[in-house]
Design brief:
Blueprint (H helix, E strand, L loop, with lengths): L9 E5 L6 H5 L5 E6 L1 H17 L3 E6 L6 H14 L3 E6 L1 H14 L3 E5 L11 E5 L5 E6 L6 E5 H5 L3 H24 L11 H26 L5 H21 L3 H9 L10 H16 L3 H14 L16 H12 L15 H19 L1
Parallel strand pairs: 1-8, 2-3, 2-4, 4-5, 5-8
Antiparallel strand pairs: 6-7
Length: 366
């Protein structure tokens, strides 16, 4: 099996980066389709419009309705076609960006991705995660190439709610452990090849950066400022995690996240919050060392990621075990990334690991 590494053509990060979006867009198109939700449009619409105008780029702005679903992708694609735009700019959170990538792919035009959050590793990837209209995981949509440009304005990211940056750390936390498992199993990655030493090294750097900078970055964002620690965590959450998961592999943690999406009680959680608990569950499945488990637990508690089912919104009642089995069965569905583990995983094993992870989290907290 060939080794494959893929990444965006250009990654730009720093304070005030959004003021330069016109300069970078000009290399791709003269007439663009800009997608953002209502909140983000009010936040950055004028900045983006002015930057595009300064570089003689015309545009059509359209509101994103909130869910990366097939219906929303078709709706926006039809509007883009009507306005004959030459490129898509997606600005906002993960679902907005995944939708922008899907719309650009359907129209076979370039895409510029500008996250206002560092809450997931979605921005750099050549895929979108599709959901149903009710918010349940649907499927992955894979693309032949990554976004043309990813632009991160860290001034904007630093002013987003701290919970979103922490959720991004939760998503990034899985990167190394899933890459390690996928590599050991010699399973193909999302990039369509074997895990490379470069991909694994980036995934490990992602993990090391989280441990070194995560708590400091959380405190800075609580103060509404961007510091070197924030810059490093934004890069870890977005670029290192993005290249790491795509070119080094996904495994149990994200599959368990997908399993939790079947429970309505978990719909209020961010992607990375569920992934963090999925990472802890994966480590239980692997029977990782106590030292490794304690390091992960300590990090999660320090930055504010969930380590118990109660923190995920699940009450300890007579229906809990039945719900956890639902999650376990969904996690092991055909085609799920849990089958990239270096051993066969059954729903019964996942069920046991979830309950053991919950007990370990409770013990660590109390």
């Amino acid at each position: 099996m060939l080794k494959v590494i893929q990444s965006p053509s250009k990654y730009i990060q720093g304070p005030g980066a959004l003021f330069h979006i016109g300069q970078y867009t000009k290399t791709l198109a003269d007439h663009v389709f800009v997608i953002a939700d209502n909140f983000v449009m009010n936040l950055i619409g004028d900045t983006v419009s002015k930057s595009l105008e300064e570089h003689e780029i015309t545009s059509h702005f359209e509101l994103f309705n909130g869910e990366c679903s097939r219906n929303e992708i078709h709706r926006l694609s039809a509007i883009l076609l009507k306005h004959q735009c030459q490129a898509v700019i997606g600005i906002g959170g993960g679902k907005t960006l995944d939708t922008a990538k899907a719309v650009a792919y359907e129209s076979k035009i370039p895409v510029i991705i500008s996250p206002t959050l560092a809450s997931t590793d979605a921005p750099t990837s050549a895929l979108s995660v599709l959901y149903t209209e009710l918010g349940e995981f649907d499927s992955y949509l894979l693309y032949p190439q990554n976004p043309n440009i990813v632009l991160m304005d860290t001034n904007i990211v630093a002013k987003a709610p701290v919970r979103l940056l922490v959720a991004g750390m939760g998503d990034a936390l899985a990167t190394y452990f899933e890459a390690r498992a996928s590599s050991a199993a010699h399973k193909p990655t999302m990039a369509g090849g074997a895990t490379s030493t470069t991909g694994l090294a980036l995934a490990k750097l992602c993990y090391d950066t989280l441990l070194a900078e995560g708590y400091k970055a959380k405190l800075a964002v609580e103060a509404g400022v961007s510091t070197p620690a924030v810059e490093n965590i934004v890069e870890a959450n977005t670029y290192l995690s993005g290249i790491g998961f795509e070119s080094a592999g996904l495994a149990a943690a994200h599959a368990i996240h997908n399993g939790f999406t079947v429970l309505e009680e978990c719909h209020h959680l961010y992607h990375g919050e569920k992934v963090a608990f999925g990472t802890l569950t994966q480590l239980i499945l692997e029977n990782s060392t106590s030292e490794e488990l304690e390091t992960v637990l300590d990090f999660c508690v320090q930055v504010g990621l969930p380590v118990t089912l109660e923190q995920l919104g699940l009450r300890d009642d007579e229906k809990l075990n039945q719900k956890i089995m639902q999650v376990a069965i969904a996690s092991c569905a055909e085609g799920e990334t849990i089958h990239n583990m270096p051993f066969v995983v059954t729903p019964e094993q996942v069920y046991a690991a979830i309950l053991a992870a919950d007990r370990m989290g409770k013990d660590w907290l109390y």
